[in-house]
Amino acid sequence: MSGKPVLHYPNSRGRMESVRWLLAAAGVEFEEKFLEKKEDLQKLQSDGSLLFQQVPMVEIDGMKLVQTRAILNYIAGKYNLYGKDVKERALIDMYVEGMADLYELIMMNVVQPADKKEEHLANALDKATNRYFPVFEKILNHGHDFLVGNKLSRADVSLLETILVVEERKPDALAKFPLLQSFKARISNTPNIKKFLQPGSQRKPPLQEKDIPSLMAIFH
Amino acid sequence: MAAKPVLYYFDGRGKMESIRWLLAAAGVEFEEVFLETREQYEKLLQSGVLMFQQVPMVEIDGMKLVQTRAILNYIAGKYNLYGKDLKERALIDMYVGGTDDLMGFLLSFPFLSAEDKVKQCAFVVQKATSRYFPAYEKVLKDHGQDFLVGNRLSWADIHLLEAILMLEEKKSDALSGFPLLQAFKKRISSIPTIKKFLAPGSKRKPISDDKYVETVRRVLRMYYDVKPN
Fold first, then answer.
1. pLDDT above 80: residue B5
2. Nearest-CA residue of chain A relative to B129?
3. Which fold has domain A4-77+196-208?
4. What is the mean pLDDT of residues B12-27?
5. A90 contacts B65? CB cut-off 8 A
6. Predicted local distance difference test score (pLDDT) of residue A2
7. Which residue among B68, B78, B93 sits closest to A73, beta carbon to beta carbon?
8. Nearest-CA neighbor of B56 among B98, B14, B108?
9. Which CATH architecture has domain B84-189?
10. Which fold has domain A84-188?
11. Mean pLDDT of B161-176
12. Do B67 and A98 make contact, defined as CB atoms within 8 angstroms?
């Protein structure tokens, strides 16, 4: 037993990826126990490890935390990535929740019915370039390196993660956003994140269509 | 003198109801601006006060907060309903996450066809009685205390009461088999600020009706074809 956090989830991004990002950005090493088949989930359910019978679940500091937000809030608070007071936290929460909405839209594209996929993706990318990115471009007009409080927070980590996910579907997504482009370069170069972005890290690749059936089999 | 928070939303529950509950439980008076016309909404959009062009939005302490979770986190923190340390906050976040998921299944309910409403009702009741209520019953059983976290009232208790009452609107005996939740419900309902919120004449909103659905569709030009879970 190492005392490192242990992440319980399939070997895919899904709802655990933002947790991996945040731990990595905080410089925290973690272990992963991958769910590969239905029996793996059932075992966790029957031994009472999952408060609502669901993953993500993270074993950390003697707790078995479920609910992605609870996990992220705890990690952000513990590693000083959650602002210095309630007002900074409110800004961070607003930004992070907005990005979570966008991320969820993009993530859900892969499970859309075939005839709806293209339209759904177009809508998601439209939201990225017309609703979300302009907001963060405007915020960065304050001239600081980071979104909130002139210091790295989970909002910066979340924004970088979201930018990269959008760029996977639309490589020129940041064409009209010069401040976001330099933000991306800057945050990608911070040591912990740079390491996470390199091959061999625990970052997961985008979900492939061929992997969907085995994922579904775990949960249904 | 601090100005009262101002809530911008439709005259109905939706995503704003949990915020009304939390403010009321904290004993905080608030004002409301109801969205009724498309023009009003477009004016709000153009004024730039909706960060992601969406409601709920709450003006509070000089901020125009959007994103339901951000608003709730802020209110809970400000009024000491968010635990005493990181670990209590983690428990509260977990419990609120569960009740949020549960109540989330009912968000689209008013927009469903009559047939889909029947299906969704059965779905939510099944989830409540087999997944969520047992979890909270066990939390209460394991520590034997009056409140979910830290032996004092928190956001988690208020949110759970809201969820229980919503489920009972769908199935009046939803809590049968959960004696500790039944006692919890009585206990939390009788807290003075909450008792006041549950009495007629408060800002608590009734179950959303067709008028609400029509208003939302007309103002947002969305949600015309909503499917159940």
1. yes
2. A52
3. Glutaredoxin (3.40.30)
4. 98
5. yes
6. 60
7. B93
8. B14
9. Up-down Bundle (1.20)
10. Glutathione S-transferase Yfyf (Class Pi); Chain A, domain 2 (1.20.1050)
11. 98
12. yes
Q: B187 pLDDT exceeds 70?
A: yes
Which of A41, A45, A52, A101 would you mutate first to test chain B, the one with the most B CBs within 10 A? A52
**Predicted confidence (pLDDT) at residue B210 exceeds the cutoff of 90:** yes
pLDDT at B87 over 90: yes
Please give the structure tokens belonging to residue A15. Answer: 């709802």
The residue of chain B nearest to residue A135, with distances taken between CA atoms, is B51
Tens digit of each residue's pLDDT (9 = 90 or more) over A44-84: 999 999 999 999 999 999 999 999 999 999 999 999 999 99
Neighbouring-strand partners of residue A35: A10
Which residue of A45, A47, A51, A82 is the best one to mutate when testing the B interface, meaning the one whose CB has the most B CBs within 10 A?
Answer: A51
- Interface check for B90 against chain A (CB to CB < 8 A): the answer is yes
Q: With 80 as the cut, is the pLDDT of residue A1 above it?
A: no
A interface test, pick of B67, B75, B84, B89 with most A CB neighbours within 10 Å: B67
Q: Inform me whether the C-beta atom of residue B229 falls under 8 Å from chain A C-beta atoms.
A: no
Residue bearing tokens 């959008």: A166
Percent of chain B with pLDDT over 90: 97
| Interface predicted TM-score of the whole assembly (ipTM), two decimals | 0.96
Residues B190-211: what's their mean pLDDT? 97
Digit-coded pLDDT (tens) for B31-83: 999 999 999 999 999 999 999 999 999 999 999 999 999 999 999 999 999 99
Kindly report the CATH number that applies to the domain delimited by B4-77+197-218. Answer: 3.40.30.10
Return the domain boundaries, chain B: 4-77+197-218, 84-189
Nearest CB neighbour to B69, from listed A53, A69, A132: A69
Domain positions in chain A are 4-77+196-208, 84-188
B89–A90 C-beta distance less than 8 A: no
**Environment class of residue B39 by beta-carbon count within 10 Å: exposed (0-12), middle (13-18) or buried (19+)?**
exposed
- Using alpha carbons, select from A19, A14, A20 the residue that is nearest to residue A35: A14
Q: Which residue of B has its CA nearest to A129?
A: B52
Q: Is the CB of B155 inside 8 Å of chain A's CB atoms?
A: no
Interface contact B128, partner A, CB < 8 A: no
What CA dihedral angle connects B143, B149, B153 and B159, to 10 degrees? Answer: -110
pLDDT band at A160 (very low <50, low <70, confident <90, very high): very high
